[in-house]
């Protein structure tokens, strides 16, 4: 039994090491200037000092973090409201909503950006704004991931039964939904949001086609760095990974603390 447990633990460890090799090599490459020999020489933090002293990099990083939050919040709110209506009032439309939310899986970024431009670029209202079009495009591409995560969470908590129990105690449906159901599926919402953060952080096609160089996100900055300095571009990539990891760690830490407080309150 012990040998079986040890073997089952080694396999995930090997997979983890295999997945981390590209990141580790990239980190090493960004820290050494001379790669003519087998062993790299010339340890230097010049690339990191250069990007962190560059206002364009800090602005691009800030724009990317900001543009991550807005589409995610909009999409979560829309999905929560749509599932509230379909689950409680129109159960027959659940399949239709699911199909609509799954459609973005099949849409390529280039096709989506060209379609949005052809429809809204001549619009004289706020819908014709490049930033608004970009936010809308991000809402579309993260829609399947947010929907699936929230939908799975609702299935796990048996939403109709909880809503019915709350109604017998005098609570309205909308109150029970946002005060009972949503807090119970917050872990599913967080996991879906983190997945959406990774998707938006890695986007280049949509922001390049919709906004061009007027809204430089971190991927456009990385692309420009790759054309000038490979060591600098490696440092940018490492920072991107560090930022996404930090965001994920902070969110999961907050979730863990909230879970502990909830357990103490229940006791």
Automatic annotation (TrEMBL):
Please indicate if the UniProt record lists Lipoprotein as a keyword.
no
Record's InterPro entries? MetI-like, MetI-like_sf
Where found? Answer: Cell inner membrane; Cell membrane
Q: Name one GO biological process term.
A: transmembrane transport
Membrane topology term reads: Multi-pass membrane protein
* Gene3D superfamilies, alphabetized: MetI-like (1.10.3720.10)
Any one GO cellular component localisation term in the record: plasma membrane
Q: Which PROSITE patterns match?
A: ABC_TM1
Residue ranges of the TM segments: 12-32, 64-84, 96-120, 126-147, 181-201, 235-254
Residue ranges constituting the ABC transmembrane type-1 domain according to the UniProt record: 61-251
User: Which controlled-vocabulary keywords does the entry list?
Assistant: Cell inner membrane, Cell membrane, Membrane, Transmembrane, Transmembrane helix, Transport
Report the principal subcellular site.
membrane
User: What domain of life?
Assistant: Bacteria
Family designation: Belongs to the binding-protein-dependent transport system permease family.
According to UniProt, the name of this protein is: ABC transporter permease subunit
What is the organism of origin for this protein? Bilifractor porci
């Amino acid at each position: 039994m012990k040998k079986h447990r040890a073997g089952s633990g080694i396999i995930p460890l090997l997979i983890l090491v295999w997945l981390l090799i590209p990141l580790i090599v990239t980190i090493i490459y960004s820290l050494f200037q001379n790669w003519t020999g087998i062993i790299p020489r010339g340890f230097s933090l010049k690339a990191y000092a250069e990007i962190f002293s560059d206002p364009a990099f800090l602005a691009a990083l800030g724009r990317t973090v900001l543009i991550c939050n807005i589409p995610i919040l909009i999409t979560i709110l829309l999905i929560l409201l749509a599932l509230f209506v379909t689950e409680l009032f129109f159960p027959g439309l659940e399949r239709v909503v699911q199909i609509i939310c799954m459609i973005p899986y099949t849409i390529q970024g280039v096709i989506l950006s060209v379609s949005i431009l052809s429809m809204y670029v001549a619009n004289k209202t706020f819908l014709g704004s490049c930033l608004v079009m970009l936010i809308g495009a991000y809402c579309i591409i993260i829609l399947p991931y947010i929907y699936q995560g929230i939908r799975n969470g609702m299935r796990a908590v048996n939403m109709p039964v909880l809503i019915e129990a709350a109604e017998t105690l005098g609570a309205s449906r909308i109150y029970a939904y946002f005060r009972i159901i949503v807090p119970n599926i917050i872990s599913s919402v967080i996991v879906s949001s983190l997945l959406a953060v990774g998707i938006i952080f890695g986007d280049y096609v949509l922001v390049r086609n919709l906004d061009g160089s007027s809204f430089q996100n971190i991927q456009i900055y990385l692309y420009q760095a790759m054309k000038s300095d490979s060591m600098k571009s490696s440092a940018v990539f490492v920072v991107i990974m560090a930022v996404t990891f930090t965001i994920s760690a902070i969110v999961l830490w907050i979730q863990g603390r909230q879970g502990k407080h909830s357990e103490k309150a229940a006791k």
